[in-house]
Design goal:
Order of helices and strands: EHHHHHEHEHEHEEH
Helix content: 40-55%
Strand order of the largest sheet: 3-2-1-4-5-6
Strand content: 5-15%
Low-confidence stretches: none
Distance between the termini: 9 Å
Bound molecules: 6-O-phosphono-alpha-D-glucopyranose, magnesium ion
Radius of gyration: 17 Å
């Protein structure tokens, strides 16, 4: 059988979640908002605009559109600064092994990310060629947990939701996969991603047997 394997980017393929965190933390501290790692979980998988709204909400801050636009630009500039020199060594452990196994087995691979910076990152870390389809923040209007991003990815691969498997590190992303009716695989803490169908701490825990089972069932 051929299945659609859909990967989130930030925190799944590369460890850019830390860069998003640092860039948001700078904005938050400018505004006098205490922004913890726990708060940051709420932002994972969430669009840039929505992330700012959540942060402002934490500080009970109402801002003009002009200020919001300014902070959104600043956040992305800081983020771009962090990712400019990204190389292959920032691909998370075990990811390449999984991508290679899927490719060698003729499986279909897509990216399903909320980030508008997804393509340049895939290029920087030199794994663009593994992907048969890419859906990112430039292609969708509804952010996760809306399933739009994953449904589009599956459609581009010519597969149904039942034939699709999603790898995600965010609560919003797991919910999106579940709502779409896809198999959700949580990458990260099981207690945070408790809505996922399967849980792993990282890709080194995912073996060929497991992948083969996903293909066969
Ligand atoms: C991913 C990350 C989020 C980020 C979003 C938008 O989903 O997990 O933290 O806010 O992408 O990314 P962007 O690069 O477009 O700001
Ligand atoms: Mg993510």
């Amino acid at each position: 059988k051929t299945k659609a394997f859909i990967f989130d980017l930030d925190g799944v393929i590369v460890d850019t979640a830390k860069y998003h965190y640092l860039a948001w933390q700078k904005i938050a501290s400018q505004l006098g908002i205490d922004f913890t790692h726990e708060h940051n979980e709420l932002l994972k998988g969430v669009s840039r605009v929505r992330s700012l709204e959540i942060i402002l909400g934490l500080g009970n801050i109402e801002a003009s559109q002009e200020d919001k636009d300014k902070w959104l630009v600043q956040k992305n500039e800081d983020y771009l600064g962090y990712i400019t020199n990204m190389k292959e060594d920032e691909i998370l452990e075990g990811v390449i092994t999984v991508l290679r196994f899927l490719k060698a087995n003729g499986q279909l691979i897509a990216l399903g990310s909320a980030s508008k910076n997804a393509r340049p990152i895939l290029e920087k870390v030199n794994i663009l060629h593994y992907f048969d389809a890419i859906v990112d923040g430039n292609d969708v209007t509804n952010a996760k947990p809306d399933p739009e991003v994953f449904i589009r990815a599956a459609k581009l691969l010519g597969k149904t939701a039942e034939e699709s498997i999603v790898f995600e590190d965010s609560v919003a992303g797991i919910q999106a996969a579940n709502i779409a009716g896809m198999v959700s695989v949580g990458i990260g803490h099981k207690d945070i991603l408790n809505e996922a169908r399967y849980n792993f701490n990282d890709f080194t825990e995912i073996d060929n047997n497991f992948l083969q089972t996903l293909v066969n069932t």
